[in-house]
């Protein structure tokens, strides 16, 4: 490979197709959930420890910051879930063309937005 | 073929399969909890601890957290080996930190369901 071949890795000048954007968001939502799971694990431990712990965990989840974290967790989970189902469908050979991939990505975004809004309604 | 010692199984196809199986388990656990919450008349300690007091729910939760650890590790391993390429020490340190966090999640979840 020639060392001086022209490359463009200037992220701000590259126009990303929807499939690239949904793919990187799948990774970001996974990492976000991994980080946010600390809250979920803490909540599980506290809420199951005793009635007092349950009250503390519930109060934390009802605090505005807790609600924001909860919604963030649910949003990341919803998007990651929908994209995961998309992967499983594509593993069976469905939607593997360029057009199919685009359509599946658009559907995934649409379904995720609906689920994320519903999660927000449920939290607040 | 390059054998990658830090990947979950050391084999790409096996990692791929573990990622799918763990995803299906996590999806089932998620759907179950969502349905349980939506069907719940009132959020209370009795209802919540009563759910986790049952043996099958403890097993389901342990299965889910084990799946989570495997799933998160395979995903984050893929992301770290994609993006943290120039400095091996940094990549290994990040990966070790992730393993430590996953281990804490595992222990705390075990402790949470054991106590109920």
Please describe the topology of this protein:
The complex is a heterodimer of chains A (124) and B (116).
Chain A lengths: L17 H32 L1 H12 L1 H28 L6 H26 L1
Helix pairs in contact in A: 1-2, 1-3, 3-4
Chain B lengths: L11 H28 L5 H9 L1 H29 L4 H28 L1
Helix pairs in contact in B: 1-3, 3-4
Fold and architecture overview:
The complex is a heterodimer of chains A (124) and B (116). Chain A has 124 residues and is mostly helical. Chain A has helices at 18-49, 51-62, 64-91, 98-123. In chain A, helix 1 (18-49) runs antiparallel to helix 2 (51-62), helix 1 (18-49) crosses helix 3 and helix 3 (64-91) runs antiparallel to helix 4. The longest helix of chain A is centred in the first third of the chain and has 32 residues, at 18-49. Helix content of chain B is 81%, strand content 0%. Chain B is elongated, with a radius of gyration of 17 Å. Chain B is mostly helical and 116 residues long. Chain B has one domain (12-115): Fumarate reductase/succinate dehydrogenase, transmembrane subunit (3 helical TM bundles of succinate and fumarate reductases). In chain B, helix 1 packs across helix 3.
State the main characteristics.
heterodimer, A: mainly alpha, 3 helical TM bundles of succinate and fumarate reductases, 4 helices, elongated, B: mainly alpha
Summarize the structure.
Chain A is mainly α and 124 residues long.
The arrangement of helices and strands of chain A along the chain is: HHHH
Query: Biggest interface and its residues per chain?
Result: A-B, 24 and 26 residues
How many runs of DSSP E, i.e. beta strands of chain A?
0
How much of the polypeptide of chain A forms β-strand, as a percent range? under 5%
End-to-end C-alpha gap of chain A: 56 Å
Element string of chain B (H = helix, E = strand): HHHH
Output the structural class of chain A.
Answer: mainly alpha
Please, what is the average pLDDT of chain A? 95
Strand content of chain B: under 5%
- Please give the oligomerization state of what you see: heterodimer
Please compute the radius of gyration of chain A using only Cα atoms: 19 Å
- Going by CATH, the homologous superfamily of chain B would be Fumarate reductase/succinate dehydrogenase, transmembrane subunit
As a whole number of angstroms, the C-alpha radius of gyration of chain B is: 17 Å
Largest sheet of chain B: none
SS summary, helix count of chain A:
4
Q: Do you know the CATH architecture of chain A? A: Up-down Bundle
CATH topology of chain A: 3 helical TM bundles of succinate and fumarate reductases
The N- to C-terminal Cα distance of chain B equals 48 Å
Integer count of domains of chain B: 1
């Amino acid at each position: 490979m020639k060392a001086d071949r022209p490359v463009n890795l200037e992220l701000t000048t590259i126009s990303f197709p929807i499939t690239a954007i949904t793919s990187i968001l799948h990774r970001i939502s996974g990492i976000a959930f991994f980080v946010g799971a600390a809250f979920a694990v803490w909540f599980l431990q506290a809420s199951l420890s005793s009635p007092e712990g349950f009250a503390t965990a519930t109060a934390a989840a009802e605090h505005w910051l807790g609600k924001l974290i909860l919604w963030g967790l649910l949003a990341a989970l919803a998007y990651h879930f929908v994209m995961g189902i998309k992967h499983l469908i594509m593993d069976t050979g469905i939607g593997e063309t360029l057009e199919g991939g685009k359509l599946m990505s658009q559907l995934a975004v649409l379904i995720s937005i609906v689920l994320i809004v519903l999660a927000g309604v449920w939290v607040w | 073929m390059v054998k990658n010692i830090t990947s979950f199984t050391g084999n790409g196809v096996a990692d791929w399969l573990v990622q799918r199986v763990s995803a299906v388990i996590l999806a089932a656990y998620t759907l179950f909890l969502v349905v349980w919450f939506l069907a719940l008349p009132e959020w209370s300690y009795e209802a919540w601890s009563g759910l986790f007091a049952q043996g099958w729910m403890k097993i389901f939760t342990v299965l889910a957290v084990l799946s989570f650890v495997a799933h998160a590790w395979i995903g984050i391993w893929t992301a770290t080996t994609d993006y943290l390429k120039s400095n091996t020490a940094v990549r290994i340190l990040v990966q070790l930190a992730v393993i430590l966090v996953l281990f804490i999640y595992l222990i705390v979840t075990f402790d949470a369901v054991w106590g109920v």
